[in-house]
Specification:
Blueprint (H helix, E strand, L loop, with lengths): L3 H30 L7 H24 L4 H25 L7 H24 L1 H8 L21 H35 L1
Amino acid sequence: MLQTSQLLIQLMLYVFLPLWGIAGFVDWCCHRATRIEHTSGLKESLIHSLMGVQMAVPILLCLLFKVNVLIMLICLAAWLAHEAVAHYDVHYAAPKRHISVWEMHAHNYLATLPLYMLLLIVVINYPVFIKLVSFNWQGEFYLQRMPYAHGGDTYLPYYLGFMAIVCVLPYMEENLRCLIAALKQRKVHA
């Protein structure tokens, strides 16, 4: 029988992480529908890419390395930074383009799933969390590879492939589309 921590890891691997990617894809579809390249443009598109990287780093760290104080601090800092940038993103975009109900709904998932995953990481690694909050950090600032792969040896390549299809490539396309539109706009005004 699986222990609770193993079940929570499975929940993150097979529900929360893929759902986060799907929400990112829905968000990209909304940006495309509002023709972001002609409204809020390259700046907002780059903000979206930044938020993806802000979450990719802690996700990869937690998949590849044993969680210690260093990784938990990185996860916490990344989540806080993501929240700040997400707030700025909506503040920047709202006056420039229509943000649909679908996009707001996608934003709900994109904002809450990282928090839920962070909280589950804290619960699963509660002794590490106690070290974090009690400043018992001695010997906790190193990267130690996991002795086993979460989800088995094939999970990470499949997950990275999935994320490449639903998030990385679409947002690269958005960045390129916005860059081309910005360059055309600059050429017209020159």
